[in-house]
TrEMBL record:
It catalyses: (R)-4'-phosphopantothenate + L-cysteine + CTP = N-[(R)-4-phosphopantothenoyl]-L-cysteine + CMP + diphosphate + H(+); N-[(R)-4-phosphopantothenoyl]-L-cysteine + H(+) = (R)-4'-phosphopantetheine + CO2. CTP binds at G273, C274, A275, D279, K289, P305, D306, I307, L308, F323, K337, K341. SUPFAM superfamilies: CoaB-like, Homo-oligomeric flavin-containing Cys decarboxylases, HFCD. The gene is coaBC. Residues 7-180 form the Flavoprotein domain. This is Coenzyme A biosynthesis bifunctional protein CoaBC. Pfam families: DFP, Flavoprotein. It comes from Candidatus Sedimenticola endophacoides.
């Protein structure tokens, strides 16, 4: 029996061409025994007929906030309490903005505000709308509030462009719903992660650093916590909010990061090295600000310790996942790094390309483990992190010879 059996899913549909896929999602959810009630915005009704969803869900479709047939009994509050999960698919840019602002001027936005059930949005929109600073801010606000953003993924869009903005397929959304109710895949496990850049001081005001924003590592930390793990995130200096239920340890240099990691690595089940750790640091840090002198200046650098390799070399190492930032041949370099550093898995990404890598909101990964390879497609870093966590949970379970979380 599916974990969805008997679960009550309130499916919100907003105006977008992807609304036609919601009909298939209703069928899939009901096929696994979930009870589905559909609420549509007025714009959604331009893309798909309420009658179709009524027939498929087996329940009346609602769209009016002040519906005389229901409101004597505060029907919208009853509906908000009824749901075990509120899923809005597709979620338009406009709906995300209204949800982020906490508006309640139609039935669906009111339900999102009034329901205490987990809320998931499956965004679908034009690429430029998804990338617009306003949408990025709304997505970050919603994610910080604990709203799950499922997708979008990159591909051909209905508007004729291609890029990030496609709603996940109904089967993928069904899988996310199943995961939501099946208990976390990392339940009870302790995960230690590194994220962000390190800063290697030259003098009291200058440092050698790199472009890591921390977005990938923070998305992973959030996804691990969402999957039920107890998460400690050792992070270099970044301007990001700590994900919900994650313990953050702030560091600056590679040596500080190494100290904080090694102090905790013996007590974690999984270690993920996502930080862009400087390979070298200045041999000496000047005590005073270095003054201008000649036309040239030489800085002598010495090698930093490899934190990831150090964790993998512990007597009882955790399941160890490294990243590899490469400008070409991610598969080849990832496999070499996996062997050289003795880690269980490497997640390689292209950096310095048009899309993905440092600073961007989206990324793609090539995963390599002994005898296996998996490609994770270009998508928002949060969605990518959720997929990576699923693979890590599977590989961890196989490596430890038990069930994930067991
Ligand atoms: O932070 P964002 O802007 O979102 O960008 C994400 C990212 C590109 C930084 C991230 O996805 C990524 O690739 N992180 C690893 C960057 C890196 O340093 O790669 P590397 O190939 O140089 O290092 C390989 C691995 O060894 C990494 O797991 C790294 O954390 C680790 N390492 C490296 C050097 C060192 N002295 N100690 C380490 O532990």
């Amino acid at each position: 029996m599916s974990g969805l059996s008997g679960k009550r899913v309130l499916l919100g549909i907003t105006g977008g061409i992807a609304a036609y896929k919601s009909a298939q999602l209703v069928r899939l959810l009901r096929g696994e025994g979930a009870e589905v009630r559909v609420v549509m915005t007025s714009a959604a009704g331009r893309f798909i007929a309420p009658m179709t969803l009524q027939a498929l869900s087996g329940n009346p479709v609602r769209s009016e906030l002040f519906d005389p047939g229901h409101e004597q009994a505060m029907g919208h509050i009853e509906l908000a309490r009824w749901a075990d999960l509120v899923l809005v698919a597709p979620a338009s840019a406009d709906f995300m903005a209204r949800c982020a602002a906490g508006m309640a001027d139609d039935l669906l936005s009111t339900l999102c505000l009034a329901s205490e059930a987990p809320l998931a949005l499956a965004p679908a929109m034009n690429r430029a709308m998804w990338e617009h600073a306003a949408t990025r801010t709304n997505a970050a606000t919603l994610a910080a509030r604990g709203v799950s953003l499922w997708g979008p993924e990159a591909g051909d869009l209905a508007c004729g462009e291609s890029g990030a903005g496609r709603m996940l397929e109904p089967g993928q959304l069904l899988a996310r719903c199943r995961d939501r109710f099946s208990g976390g895949v990392l339940d009870g496990l302790r995960v230690l992660l590194t994220a962000g850049p390190t800063r290697e001081a030259l003098d009291p005001v200058r440092f050698i650093g790199n472009r890591s924003s921390g977005k990938m590592g923070f998305a992973l930390a959030g996804a691990c916590a969402g999957a039920g793990a107890r998460v400690v995130l050792v992070s270099g200096p970044v301007a990001l909010e700590t994900p919900a239920a994650v313990e953050r340890v702030g560091v600056e240099s590679a040596l500080e990061m190494q100290r904080e990691v090694l102090a905790r690595a013996g007590e974690c089940d999984i270690f993920i090295g996502c930080a862009a750790v400087a390979d070298y640091r200045p041999e000496e840090m000047a005590r005073e600000k270095i003054k201008k002198s000649g036309e040239r200046m030489r800085i002598s650098l010495i090698r930093n310790p490899d934190i990831l390799a150090g964790v993998a070399a512990l007597e009882h190492p955790p399941f160890t996942v490294g990243f590899a930032a490469e400008t070409r041949d991610p598969l080849g370099y990832a496999e070499a790094k996996r062997r050289d550093k003795g880690v269980d898995m490497v997640a390689a990404n292209l950096v310095g390309a048009d899309r993905g890598g440092f600073e961007r909101d989206e990324n793609a990964l090539t995963l390599v483990w002994e005898g296996g390879v998996r490609e994770l497609a270009m998508q928002d870093k949060r969605g990518l992190a959720a997929e990576l966590v699923m693979v890590i949970a599977q590989r961890y379970a196989l490596a430890r010879g038990g069930a994930p979380g067991g």
